[in-house]
Amino acid sequence: MYYYDRVFSSEKEKYDFVNECDRQFFSKIESAADDIADDKNIRFILLAGPTCSGKTSATNVLTKTLIKDGKEVVSVSIDDFFKDSAHLKNTDGKVDFESINAIDYELFCKCTESLKKGNATSIPIFDFVKGMRNGERVLDPDDNTIIIFEGIQAVYPEITSLFHEESKKVFISVNTDITAYGQSFSKRRLRFSRRLVRDFLFRGASPEL
Question: Mean per-residue pLDDT for 163-172?
Answer without folding.
Answer: 86
